[in-house]
Design brief:
The chain is mostly helical. Helices cover 56% and strands 6% of the residues. A hairpin with a 6-residue loop joins strand 1 and strand 2. Helix 2 packs across helix 6 and helix 5 runs antiparallel to helix 6.
Length: 140
Amino acid sequence: MSDKYLRFLARYTINVKDIPNETIHEVKRRIVDSFAVMYPTFHDNTTKPAKKYAYMFPDPNGSTVFGTNYKTNPEIAGFINAAMVRYLDFNDTYLSKEPLHPSDMIRDLFAIAEWKELSDKQLIKAIAYEICISLRMVRV
């Protein structure tokens, strides 16, 4: 994707003024769902190699690995958190018609929001208007 399109999508996202209360409610439900499926995998052997990888790249100004006080760069934190969130939820999709789920971006947006020191409202806005979910309705 060229920078021209990335800038277009970013401008679209940040220029949304008001988020309906129903959308905020649904975003919070997806966050709770993400953490609920992550919790049982925290001590699971399946995600231990990913967490060991994160410990090789400490970054005190980075993003937190869920369930720890450890910080690494946002890309690695997003990857580790994704492994924990999606391990038990791997076969869940959105509307059961496409290969994605709203939680597929939540953990990455958490990592970026923490790294960039964004507010909770900015994080909710980013999750509410994540491009991945918006584009899933496009039929070619």
